[in-house]
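User: Hey, quick favor. My workstation is busy. Could you predict this chain's structure for me?
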Amino acid sequence: MEKTLAYWQDKAATLSIEGRAFIDGEYRHAANGRTFDCLSPIDGKLLVKVADSAADDVNAAVAAARGAFDSRVWSGLNPRQRKAILLRWAGLLREHLDELSLLETLDAGKPIGDTTSVDVPGAAYCVEWFAEAIDKIGGEVAPADHHLVGLVTREPIGVVAAVVPWNFPILMASWKFGPALAAGNSVVLKPSEKSPLTAIRIAQLAHEAGIPAGVFNVVPGAGEPGKLLALHPDVDCLAFTGSTNVGKLIMQYAGQSNLKRVWLELGGKSPNIVMPDCADLDRAANAAAGAIFYNMGEMCTAGSRLLVHRDIKDVFLDKLIAAARSYTPGNPLDPKTSMGAIVDQVQLDRVLGYIEAGRAESKLLLGGGRVKQESGGYYIEPTIFDTQADAKIAREEIFGPVLSVITFDTAEEAIRIANNSEYGLAAAVWTSNLTTAHEMARSLRAGTVWVNCYDEGGDMNFPFGGYKQSGNGRDKSLHALEKYTELKSTLVRLR
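Assistant: No problem, here it is.
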């Protein structure tokens, strides 16, 4: 059956949406009865009223997680048993692909073509990947005196709080709870109040798969639960993806409480450098458009600073603008749509504010306006500015479909501009010279550097995270397990 716009609209009309918190194996209303409205960015209409969790709810979730951890109903299982349960959960995520993708699209405004092909399958794959890895990782027998046997082992850290963003709600959540659960921890997940619905739904699927009560909890809420988890003395580790400003607050809260481990994946203002010897300007232009306009520019790795050599600038801009025109905002429920809605009115106003700042200090090349207002939703057309490296729109993270094009004359100048940022999450360079590629990649201060591509190689084998104020620690890959485990040295005297 072809899944057309009509198919998804019919499915949306009959979709049952859960809005309660999930604590200790069951759905619950907030203890104080409070809710907040979850609106769809597609048309601004109410989807469901969601439990607005507060202190009593967070305390109950943490207590359930601690009780489950201490009882060893999960942490005490043989790794192969945890693997089998996690694989069942991943299978349920795939079985519910249409439902979860539709929830994600309705809630976050993402195109249904993306949620069905990237977000939900990617989350299932993440759970599978860490499930398969966990029973294949051993410890060490360390060198010691002859009368000793020295063992180095990894143990689960305990109760892990995961506070995740609204731009990739299910996918980035899986990057946290996948390795945390595989390692044997209990998890309290706090989704963004802007897009909480898939997190709430997958909690029930986790329970159906066999994850014991208390091991996986979800506490939605309008900001407060995140602070409460960061301050909670019985949370052992907090993994956060979001803004740099909030990340700094979370580190302060951890210091004020129990010095819990804090892992932060924060903002970015990623440079995408096109050298004059780039062998395929058409491909580079298409990639540059995708780097900023995919997911409506709501990406921490968005290539929001495009650095183009002066010798090829005019030709490249023509190709870039042509590529950008293919990202026309449309109904996210239409499989043909390549660019959906901005997540909510607050973010819409923020992006439009940056566009106005750009008009005042830069040259507008394309777009710059809100569109589809008759829908009631929040849509902005692809926007491109020709600007200077020190302009506001070229320095600050916008988190929207706004691209700053910056001109450079030498490789050294490009590196200086690229690294002159508080962020260091990702970067790219386009060149046909192998030496240039390696030297520039080494010089770029970023956690991921792409050469002659952008945002490719998204497999779980590669660690993801940033330098400087883009955060610390790494999601994905076996390195992610390091965040959710404690190292223990055991020395046994033989005589």
